[in-house]
Amino acid sequence: MDAHARRSAALNDRAPRKEAKLILYWMQHSQRAHGNPALERAAYWANQCGLPLLVLFVVDPGYPDANIRHYTFMLEGLKETIAAVEKRGAAFSLRLGSPPEVAVKVAREAAVVVTDRGYLRHLVEWRRTLARECDCLVEMVEGDAIVPVEEASGKQETAARTFRPRVHRALPAFLDLPQTVRLKHEAKDLGSKDDQHLTDVTAFAEGLGCDMSVPAVTQIRGGISEARKHLKAFLQDDFPYYGDKRLDIINRHVSVMSPYLHFGQISPLEIYHAVQDVKGHDESRASYVEEMLVRRELAINFVHYSPEYDSYKALPVWARETLEHHAGDPRDRTFTRRQLEEGKTDDPYWNAAMREMRVTGYLHNALRMYWGKRIIAYTNTPKTAYATALYLNNKYFLDGRDANSYANVGWLFGLHDRGWPERNVFGKVRTMTASGLERKFDIDACVKWANAL
C-alpha cells in the first residue's frame, strides 16, 4: 500500500464533494483496464464513497502530430478497454473534444476525480487545468513508469550511467502490481448524449477529420490482447537470443512492445514481471531490463526535467558546440525533407529504412540509429537535421510523439552520450556509416525485404 500511495499525488487541496453522482476516472495515458493503478485508485474511491465509477476518455481530433495511423492503433486498443471496463461494472464514456474541457465538465458530478499521469508539456498542463477548475479532490496516479519519475531521481540525469544506479536502487519498492478492486456499486444511468459509440474503428477514425496522409498499419493491431500475444511469442521464441543478438536486423529478436507502451495499452510492470519469470537467460534479462527500465525511464526523466525537451536547445552544450563548429563542413550530398520522406536519396540502405517506417510504423533500433545519424549528414545544418528527424519520427512511428521520441532524437545529436573522436560534419557526436552496416549485417537482404513491403 505504501508503494501504491507513493504513485499517487493530490493535484489540489479540495475535499471529496459530498453531494455527488459518481467517481470519475479520466483515462488519458493509461489506456487499459488491467494493471492500471489509476483505475484501481478510482475503484477504491467508488467503494469508499458508495458511488458508481465512470471512466472517461476524450478523443482529441486535433491532438499534436496525430494522424490516422496513430488514431487507428489507439482506437483498436480502446475498443477492448471499453469492454473490459464495462465488464467490471463501471461505465465508460467516450467523447470527442478538448480533453481537459470535457473532463472538467464531467467532473461537476464527481465526488473525486482520478487521472493518470502524462509527461509531455501539454499533458501536464491538461492536468493542471483539471485540478484548478474542479471544486472536488483531484488525484493523479502514475502507472506508466515502473519507478515514479521523482522517486528515481530529483534532477535531470545526464546519461544512463548516472541514472542506472538511482533507478535500480528505487526499483524494489515499486514492484507490486496493483490489486484489482471489486466494485460494490454497478454503474447505471450514467450515459450522456455526447457519448460516442466505437463499433467500427476504421469508420470512427476516418470520421475524426484528422490527417489521412499516413495510412494505418496492417502488420500489428492495438490492444492489450495483441500486446500480450506479441510478448508471449517474444519470450518463447526470441528472448533466449535477445542478450547477444538483439541488434540483428535480419533475424529480429525484438518484442515490439514500444507501440503498446506508448498508448498505455500494457503495463510496463506486467512486462517486467513476465521477463523476470522466464528461467535462465540472464544476459537477455539484463539487456531487456536495461532497455525498458533504464533507457525508457531515462527518457521520462529527460522530458520531465527539461522544459525544452522538443527543441534543439535541449541538447548538451558540448554537442551543440561541436555540431555548430562543423555546421559549415561540406556534405557529400544533401536532400530536401520531401526527398528524405519519400526515400528518394542515393543511399539504398537509408531508403529501405524510410520505406519500412512509412509502411509499418516501426523500425529496428539498429536501423533507427543509422536512419537518424545519416539525416545529420544529409541536411545542410544540424538544426535542420534535428527538425527533420523529429518531424519524420513523430509522423510515421506508432511510438512517436512521446518521451522516448524526444530523448531518442536528442540522442542522435549527443543527448545522454559522450564525445567521440572528431569527424567531419558530426564533430564529436557519435556517427554511423553504411560501411558499419555492411560489416555487421546482410544489409542487402534487409533492403530486399523492405522494398517488398
TrEMBL record:
<dbReference type="InterPro" id="IPR036155">
    <property type="entry name" value="Crypto/Photolyase_N_sf"/>
</dbReference>
<keyword id="KW-0285">Flavoprotein</keyword>
<dbReference type="Pfam" id="PF00875">
    <property type="entry name" value="DNA_photolyase"/>
</dbReference>
<keyword id="KW-0274">FAD</keyword>
<dbReference type="InterPro" id="IPR052219">
    <property type="entry name" value="Photolyase_Class-2"/>
</dbReference>
<feature type="domain" description="Photolyase/cryptochrome alpha/beta">
    <location>
        <begin position="21"/>
        <end position="149"/>
    </location>
</feature>
<comment type="similarity">
    <text>Belongs to the DNA photolyase class-2 family.</text>
</comment>
<protein>
    <recommendedName>
        <fullName>Deoxyribodipyrimidine photo-lyase</fullName>
        <ecNumber>4.1.99.3</ecNumber>
    </recommendedName>
</protein>
<keyword id="KW-0238">DNA-binding</keyword>
<dbReference type="GO" id="GO:0000719">
    <property type="term" value="P:photoreactive repair"/>
</dbReference>
<dbReference type="InterPro" id="IPR036134">
    <property type="entry name" value="Crypto/Photolyase_FAD-like_sf"/>
</dbReference>
<dbReference type="GO" id="GO:0003904">
    <property type="term" value="F:deoxyribodipyrimidine photo-lyase activity"/>
</dbReference>
<dbReference type="GO" id="GO:0003677">
    <property type="term" value="F:DNA binding"/>
</dbReference>
<keyword id="KW-0234">DNA repair</keyword>
<keyword id="KW-0227">DNA damage</keyword>
<dbReference type="InterPro" id="IPR014729">
    <property type="entry name" value="Rossmann-like_a/b/a_fold"/>
</dbReference>
<keyword id="KW-0456">Lyase</keyword>
<dbReference type="InterPro" id="IPR006050">
    <property type="entry name" value="DNA_photolyase_N"/>
</dbReference>
